[in-house]
Amino acid sequence: KQEVTQIPAALSVPEGENLVLNCSFTDSAIYNLQWFRQDPGKGLTSLLLIQSSQREQTSGRLNASLDKSSGRSTLYIAASQPGDSATYLCAVIYQKVTFGIGTKLQVIP
Amino acid sequence: DAGVIQSPRHEVTEMGQEVTLRCKPISGHDYLFWYRQTMMRGLELLIYFNNNVPIDDSGMPEDRFSAKMPNASFSTLKIQPSEPRDSAVYFCASSLSTVNYGYTFGSGTRLTVV
Known about the structure:
The complex is a heterodimer of chains A (about 110) and B (about 110). Chain A contains no helices and eleven strands. In chain A, the strands form two sheets. In chain A, strands 2, 4, 5, 9, 10 and 11 form a six-stranded mixed beta sheet that branches. In chain A, strands 1-3-8-7-6 form a five-stranded antiparallel beta sheet, with no helix packed on it. Chain A is globular. The mean pLDDT of chain A is about 95. The model of chain B has no long low-confidence stretch (mean pLDDT about 95). By secondary structure, chain B is mainly β. In chain B, strands 2, 4, 5, 6, 9, 10 and 11 form a seven-stranded mixed beta sheet that branches. In chain B, strands 1-3-8-7 form a four-stranded antiparallel beta sheet, with no helix packed on it. Chain B is globular and about 40 Å long. The chains are: A mainly beta (about 110), B mainly beta (about 110). Chains A and B meet through β4, β5, β9 and β10 of A and β5 and β10 of B.
């Protein structure tokens, strides 16, 4: 059974700081890994999708990496802004998807 | 495309009542998923469909929960009878394929059973 762990559970940083969110998974047999953002009381917004054959994906200030062999993914956020404050969820996709609990990020102005 | 559409956005009902949640996936997506999100357990997969056929319902908590997908553009999740512990946010998501594509989520239905 796939298990997904996200560390840290919560993170508070000053505006402008670069930060890394971590995701680990126990079964390396995956199709894709997807990072989502969830604002309070809202749905999930897809940020980046990394296919199993890829090592990383970039979108603006976001960069996600994937190391299947070690069961790890990271989400790097450059020059953080208060608008980045949200919960970030890692989802590991095989025949179905398994989510981590998420990292709650607060960027302080 | 309008994305995955869920209704209602909020539902408050009394214990014992029947609740029906609705979802319209993105046109052309072959996969549809129902999730439940709580503070304690995070996001849990309840059931998913491929081409309108239920593939895995092992996450459905008990017989009070049922899901249908009568056609490619509509699915329902029904709880009968509802209980306070069913209070959660229920999300529907769709995907073109689980192999090369990611998931698109709806905005969710916040269910409160009193």
